[in-house]
Amino acid sequence: MSCQNFYFNDSRDGLNLRTEFVLRSFMKYKSTRGQVSGLGFSDALLMGLASDGGLLVPETIPDVRLELDYWRNLNFVELAQELIPKFIDDIDAKVLRHLIAESYASFSHADVVTLHDLNGISVLELFHGPTLAFKDVALQLLGKLFEYVLSERGQRLNILGATSGDTGSAAIDGVRGQKNIDIFIMYPKGRVSTLQELQMTTVADENVHCIELDGSFDDCQNIMKTVFADEHYKANYHLGAVNSVNWARILAQIVYYGYASLRSSAEVTFCVPTGNFGNVFAAYMAQSMGFPVAHLLVATNDNDILARFFATGVYARGEVHQTLSPAMDIQVASNFERFLYYHFEQDSDRLVTFMREFTATGSASIGAPPNSRLMSSVAVNKEQTLAAMREVNQEFDYVLDPHTAVGYYAARNNPNVIGKETEIVVVATAHPAKFPDAVQAATGSEPTHPTLEALKGLKMHRTALPCDIDAVKKYLVGKLQIAREA
Fold first, then answer.
1. DSSP assignment string, 4-15
2. Nearest by Cα to 303 from 319, 316, 279, 281
3. Of the residues 37, 68, 211, 264, which has the maximum number of CB atoms within 10 A of its CB?
4. Is the pLDDT of residue 72 over 60?
5. What is the torsional sign of CA 377, 384, 449, 184?
């Protein structure tokens, strides 16, 4: 169970006093596939992907509706310090508050994230972290949590991750130089932007290892999941995860949905560009906790497995298309299993049957489409993406990156959003300077950022491997053996 907080306001002598009574019980974690339960947060953090192949979720979801009025007055870090401890009860409260504050000290915006109005549509800028992507919000905290828990336990961790662009650089930045962590990031050859690749491969710290695989992101992700499914290998080499399969990633992302919803005068419709479903699942959790979230619009590019699912109820693998928004070039959304678990009313047997059918055939159905009142999806193509970038630049003198443009176009043209009595917030996932070619094609000008300009000309450190699980395993073993001998 989660911590429950009860408040009352007492006005005396013109002062408003907020008194809090805390009934504390223990937050535990379980697997969507039903064979793992009762984990404390720190164990869930280090396990990453559940040992039964499922994804870890909290055993209960805190109801925060009674706290929202107070939380409206908090800045981002303060809200994080209130919300995150509801899911973490095995790290000292003062230590956790410090780790949270320290995680966001390097962000360039005073309040970490910010809202920018575009004539009735707000853009939630999440790209003010060290690698200019929304994933910094979670991965800076994840790095601090890893460092603290490993130090307390006297353990080390070898992180294996897959990236379609931004996860890799954000994860590397979060753990680079740490003595008790080595990080191995796989990315698909030729399918991340040049600047995204530079952000990963120019990091020279000895604990950072970049692997260029000859395949798609889905191939990278499948190798990662297969390696984690080998329990002997995972335990022997102390593997951990930074991808959004790690619950701590989702937890940190819930904060900015809560923050944005509490800065609106009405319930919010969030439009979230997504590939792996982790970002939008965090919004779903915020909605489930009681934040004023009316609707979630899942925006995809031509890799439209999610759009097809929400329209038909059928989850069917398709061909991976290379697009202007490479972080969304995914046909198997690894976080989608968490949503299905709750859609199936936490019935693990039903979920396992569904996932087995999908793995075996590439397709599975839930029957009727999900409730479109709470969540819907739309696919946005290349021409529409460029049109959105061009429109916003001409009308507002504002530049969208291609991922955010997918979200903006979906919000501006979807009947589930337009005309509803909600405030529309489009989630801006990356700084436009990370995708200069797409921005140049849409607007005629090339955006820059000093952080990215400083990378040009630096030596790249990467290892090219075939898209083969045995090759990846062998590479990891070799690197870890060298580290042990050193």
1. EEEEEEEEETTE
2. 319
3. 211
4. yes
5. positive
Condensed to tens digits (0 to 9), the pLDDT of residues 444-463 reads 999 999 999 999 999 999 99
What string of DSSP letters covers 31-62?
ETTSS---B-HHHHHHH-B-TTSSBEEESS--
pLDDT of residue 343: 96
Distance separating alpha carbons of residues 442 and 436, to the nearest angstrom = 10
Compute the residue count for the chain.
Answer: 486
Beta carbons within 10 angstroms of residue 407's beta carbon? 32
User: Considering Cα of 390, then 392, then 393, then 399, what sign does the dihedral take?
Assistant: negative
**Quick one: which H or E segment has residue 202?**
none
Tokens standing for residue 123: 């853009």
- Quick count: other Cβ atoms within 10 Å of Cβ 417? 22
Helix (H) or strand (E) holding 328: none
Distance CA 43, CA 30 (A): 11
Q: What is the pLDDT of residues 99-156, one digit of tens each?
A: 999 999 999 999 999 999 999 899 999 999 999 999 999 999 999 999 999 999 999 9
**DSSP H or E run through 114:** strand 114-118
DSSP string, 348-393: HHHHHHHHHHHHHHSEEE-SSPP-TTTEEEEE--HHHHHHHHHHHH
Q: Give tens-digit pLDDT for 289-312.
A: 999 999 999 999 999 999 999 999
Of the residues 135, 144, 234, 434, only one is catalytic, namely 135
Q: Is 474 a catalytic residue?
A: no
Site of tokens 């005629």: 444
Q: What is the pLDDT of residue 11?
A: 41
Sequence spans of domains, the chain: 114-132+250-449
What mean pLDDT is predicted for residues 242-250? 92
Tell me how far apart the alpha carbons of residues 117 and 115 are, in angstroms, rounded to a whole number.
7
Q: What is the pTM of this model?
A: 0.91
Number of Cβ within 10 Å of residue 170's Cβ equals 27
Q: How far apart are CA 19 and CA 9, in angstroms?
A: 7
Q: Report H helices in 129-246.
A: 135-153, 166-175, 194-201, 217-229, 231-236
How many CA atoms, within 13 angstroms, populate the side-chain half-sphere of residue 107? Answer: 28
Largest CA distance in the chain: 72
Average pLDDT of the chain to the nearest whole number: 92
Note whether 410 and 271 are within 8 A (CB): yes
Six-digit token pair at 145?
């949590």
Amino acid at position 215, single letter:
G
- Cα distances (angstroms) measured from residue 16 to each of 20, 28, 152, 360, 472: 13, 35, 40, 60, 60
